[in-house]
Design brief:
Elements: E1 5-10, H1 16-26, E2 29-35, H2 39-52, E3 60-62, H3 65-69, E4 76-79, H4 83-95, E5 99-102, H5 110-122, E6 127-129, H6 138-147, E7 155-165, H7 170-173, H8 185-201, E8 209-218, E9 227-236, E10 242-248, E11 250-261, E12 265-268, E13 279-285, E14 288-292, E15 295-299, E16 302-308, H9 318-331, H10 338-359
Parallel strand pairs: 1-2, 1-4, 2-3, 4-5, 5-6, 7-10
Antiparallel strand pairs: 7-11, 8-9, 9-10, 11-12, 12-13, 13-16, 14-15
């Protein structure tokens, strides 16, 4: 059995620099080729990344996506193309026998994603989306606290915010403000993470109904239509849990999650991109309201939980774990279909949020 998964990059998107380093640190993977429609851009991308984080053998620059898929020295492709283009290229990659790591949001709608994941299944290749936090050791630690019933009690409410305030140039040139490339705007770019975190906490249970609302919209000059710049949603589950999320391109950096229960709550403020450091943490709070005579005291009781994991750029970081996990499946000739299911569940809720915002009515996500 081979001991190294050979990766090809389909485009020179900026997020690829992070995954380049993750592949370098995975221990079982290597970047073998980078494709761009502009061959010089591929060469520049390789040169820049090699200068910062080199592989022993410099990856090959390829000037055509089909050439990359026909490359005999590639096992898996990383696809960070704009969302509107992923459907076509994920299917073609699967048909070429290449395993697929797909950036999020995975598709423009559920119909597209079903076809993408079906093509991967039919061709026996792994499909996974690029939600890095799913691979962090912090999640099992959080799950242990959420399920022990001692600290949180019965889960009742989930509240999430993921936002950043884009600079002026963002609204003129960034593809996330172009409806032809990223039709879901902030809902796709940021809301995907909020939905996934909620579904993870609910063990994959879909909400019975979703209410979504576009709070602000806009577009870059070259966009044919508007995209959501600010979005909020409410979700209600059969188990009695309710959840909300807010995502925005016009509110400064926040990435907070609070899981509230009958006894306390669990909170973290860096659920997508961990704060810089060698430890990841979350807080568990069990505050107490105590009355003594005329004194009405709210006592603050917070316990910090930590796991030894670097925030980024290290072999133990979540992005390195993601690549390592994916590559292990490829090298072991295993296909873990649970990763496709997580993507389909997330897409189902995202589509319901958008449909609700467009119709002004509650929507039940389609079953996966």
């Amino acid at each position: 059995m081979a001991d190294t998964c050979r990766w090809g990059f389909m485009s020179t998107a900026g997020i690829g620099r992070k995954n380049w380093k993750a592949i370098r640190h995975a221990g079982n993977a290597v970047v073998s080729a980078v494709a761009s429609r502009d061959l010089e851009k591929a060469r520049q991308f390789i040169a820049t990344n090699q200068a910062d984080c080199p592989f022993d053998k410099e990856p090959e620059a390829v000037g055509d996506y089909d050439e990359l898929l026909n490359h005999g020295g590639i096992d898996a492709v990383y696809i960070p193309l704009p969302t509107a283009l992923r459907h076509r290229w994920v299917i073609r990659a699967a048909e070429a026998g290449k395993h697929v790591l797909c950036e999020k949001p995975c598709a423009s709608n559920m119909h597209e994603l079903r076809e993408m994941t079906a093509a991967c299944k039919a061709n026996g290749v792994q499909f996974m989306d690029g939600v890095m936090f799913m691979h962090s050791t912090r999640l099992p630690a959080m799950k242990s606290v959420l399920e022990d019933k001692t600290h949180i009690g019965d889960l009742r409410r989930i509240a999430i915010q993921f936002s950043f305030c884009g600079p002026e140039a963002f609204f003129r040139t960034d593809i996330r403000t172009h409806s032809g490339l990223e039709p879901q705007g902030c809902l796709g770019d940021l809301g995907w993470y909020c939905i996934r975190q909620t579904l993870w906490a609910m063990n994959g249970e879909l909400p019975r109904e979703v209410f979504g609302r576009v709070l602000a919209e806009g577009k870059q000059p070259n966009s044919p239509g508007n995209v959501p710049l600010e979005f909020s949603a409410e979700m209600f589950f059969e188990s009695g849990v309710s959840a909300s999320f807010y995502c925005s391109f016009i509110t400064e950096h926040q990435q907070s999650v609070r899981f509230s229960g009958s006894k306390g709550y669990l909170q973290l403020d860096d659920f997508v991109l961990p704060y810089l450091g060698s430890e990841l943490s979350f807080d568990v709070a069990n505050h107490a309201f105590v009355v003594r005579g005329c004194d009405f005291n709210m006592e603050r009781h917070v316990q910090k939980h930590q796991v030894q994991e670097y925030a980024n750029g290290w072999p133990t970081a979540q992005e390195s774990r993601m690549i390592r996990c994916f590559s292990e499946n490829v090298l072991g000739k295993r296909v873990d279909e649970s990763w496709s299911r997580w993507s389909l569940l997330t897409q189902s809720v995202l589509d319901a949020c958008l449909e609700s915002a467009q119709t002004g009515k509650s929507v039940r996500p389609v079953r996966v």
